[in-house]
Design brief:
Elements lengths: L2 H11 L14 H32 L5 H23 L3 H17 L22 H11 L2 H22 L4 H79 L3 H20 L15 H15 L4 E6 L6 H22 L5 E7 L3 E8 L14 H13 L3 E7 L2 E9 L2
Parallel strand pairs: 1-2
Antiparallel strand pairs: 2-3, 3-5, 4-5
Length: 411
């Protein structure tokens, strides 16, 4: 039973999120359709090619080197195209080569054939491959060139036949029938290829829209779930702490109410962080705090000096996380409101006392006393967060800049 949710999570992780940089979803159906068309073309072209090869070998003469060269020039690209269609690699390239080579060979055919061969009912082997040239163009070229090949190839064939028959009456009759039949068949082949590709593209587009809609719905569901969790946190932790503080009577009750309020403020402040859980409370040194602050600078796209001073200064992990998150908020404020001018960060550790983090900038500053109660970026993310771990936070700001001092002292 546990394998099914895991598989769903794995599948969901492969779905692009809304706003991602991907411009299109994978053309799964389109790729499958191209593969099917290539296989079908390979089968049909192999049958016609075998028929043409048998006919060519029967009419081949050692005294006719031009005929032999034409045979090699036509069948080598044809074999390469068939192989590419079977293996699924280089289909467009080799199909395009055959389509062009075959047109040239067909146009040059009157210079290759024996002038004595003038039978209207006897078709040379190269004429068996007219529609193979059309399907090769269908695999290799854009739609306009596909129709150009389907419409132009039969007329090239007809002209060559008339030249071979010296435009005699009997050649006109048979050639007109062959040209009309080949023209209709070529247009049908190209039209079917266009139709199948259009259907596949429509399926891929519908699939992409469905995935995008599902991603949007999932994101909305996640936001609603987070809102519900936040509401539950407010109800279960913050309100409970306030009620306990209101009803506290006696020193013991007051200590418990303070502990509950501290825990609630810490959890509330940490909900905006990537890691909402408090995690381990193992001691953390100033070097780890410096590493986290440098990572925060990189994520925020800010450039500043992070200076480490003092001794080891080990503090509990919960206090270190509060210092890092509060300092991160101060850095974000400096980047947003002061464009990061003169941003300087100092981390001072004292082995027996605690850690002090100072974030300063040389921006235009602001009035600290005018901070509204709804400014959670400072009230909750800095003051409340540090209060939640029995730390201190102080902000001094004037026209010369702003300095945020965060501290945690061992009691």
């Amino acid at each position: 039973m546990a394998a099914e949710p895991l598989s769903i999570r794995d599948a969901w992780s492969k779905i692009p999120s809304p706003g991602s940089t991907e411009t299109a979803y994978e053309r799964f159906t389109g790729k499958r359709m191209e593969r099917i068309l290539a296989i079908v073309v390979a089968i049909g072209s192999a049958v016609l090619g075998a028929q043409a090869l048998i006919s060519a070998m029967g009419s081949l003469s050692a005294a006719d080197p031009a005929h032999l060269v034409t045979l090699i020039v036509v069948f080598v690209p044809l074999a390469a195209m068939l192989l590419a269609c079977v293996v699924g690699w280089g289909v467009r390239t080799f199909s395009g080569i055959f389509a062009v080579v075959y047109v040239l060979a067909l146009a040059a055919w009157p210079t290759v054939v024996d002038p004595s061969d003038k039978g209207a009912g006897d078709q040379p082997w190269i004429f068996f491959l007219v529609n193979v040239g059309v399907v090769a163009a269908m695999l290799a070229f854009p739609l306009r060139l596909q129709f150009a090949w389907a419409a132009g190839m039969p007329f090239v064939y007809g002209y060559v036949r008339l030249v071979q028959g010296e435009f005699s009456r009997e050649f006109w009759v048979t050639t007109a029938f062959d040209v009309s039949f080949t023209l209709i068949l070529g247009v049908v082949i190209v039209s079917l290829g266009w139709m199948f590709r259009s259907v596949a593209a429509g399926v891929d587009e519908a699939r992409g829209q469905a995935v995008a809609s599902y991603s949007t719905a999932a994101a909305a569901a996640a936001a609603e779930e987070e809102r519900a969790a936040m509401s539950a946190l407010m109800h279960d932790s913050v309100l409970a702490a306030l009620i306990a503080a209101e009803r506290a009577e006696g020193e013991r009750a007051e200590e418990l109410a303070v502990a509950m309020a501290r825990e609630a403020l810490t959890r509330l402040a940490n909900t905006e962080a990537a890691v909402a859980q408090e995690g381990s409370d193992e001691p953390v040194g100033t070097s780890q705090i410096v590493v986290e602050l440098r990572r925060a600078l990189s994520e925020l796209g800010a450039d500043a000096i992070v200076e480490e001073r003092g001794g080891i200064g080990l503090i509990p992990g919960r206090a270190a996380r509060a210092l890092v998150l509060a300092a991160r908020q101060a850095i974000g404020n400096a980047v947003t409101h002061a464009n990061g001018r003169g941003l300087h960060i100092i981390v001072e550790g004292h082995a027996d006392e605690g850690v002090v983090v100072t974030v300063s900038d040389t921006g235009s500053g602001f009035d600290v006393e005018a901070i509204g109660a709804d400014r959670l970026g400072i009230r909750a993310s800095i003051f409340a967060r540090m209060a939640g771990v029995a730390g201190t936070a102080d902000i001094v700001s004037d026209e010369h800049g702003t300095t945020v001092t965060l501290g945690w002292v061992r009691s």
